[in-house]
Amino acid sequence: MILIGSTGASTPVLAEPQVSIIMEKTTYTYCERLVYSIEVSEITGELAYIFIRDDSGVTSEGIPIIIEKLSTQIPSPHAFEKEIFPAGKYFIDLQYLGIQTTAEFNLINSDNMCIPQSMQKVVVGWINEKLSDGMLISGFQNIVDKKLIDVPFEFTEKNIGKLNIPEWVKSVGKGWVMGIISDQMFVQNLQYLIDEKIISFPIERENEI
Predict the structure, then answer these.
(1) Which of 35, 120, 135, 145 could covalently link to 131 via disulfide, CB atoms 3.0 to 4.6 Å apart?
(2) What is the pTM of this model?
(3) Does domain 13-108 have CATH number 3.90.1150.10?
(4) Residue-range domain boundaries for the chain
(5) pLDDT in tens, 121-151
């Protein structure tokens, strides 16, 4: 910005930094992930802070964001879940360089069903062989909506370690954790393997022979 004084001499004035939030869209349904971009006019090395606020004023803790580019896309690592986010209007408050700006979006009710966020730790533990195959499927049975996956097994302390899942299924689990494979594709793979008795207890295989 250049200001022209009465003498005709030009005096440079520092422009105020510009900060904005660009929404990918403004209406979301359950099982979708929030995606937006932060656009700034200056990169100073300072952190930006994001706060998610609902219509009643309840605000999340500040989420630090490293700003290394003039435009930074921020994809949420987790999808919206009914148990955590009631339907309604939400706000994204951004603080950077002493400037605050706000964007808003609506979360509408839907029949979409997804794997709860709490299952991710179970899947990661199973991939890293800290949890057995039976513990993984028991997790799906107890945590995931039965409309999404039907697990017919009755687990006990004695049999939970005997369930067998083919080793290649772990690549599907890794894809889901990384966000490459959808919730629906992950559970459809598991449901097919359960229905075909490929995921089963050894005694069940013996009975079929």
Answers:
(1) 135
(2) 0.69
(3) no
(4) 13-108, 119-208
(5) 999 999 999 999 999 999 999 999 998 999 9
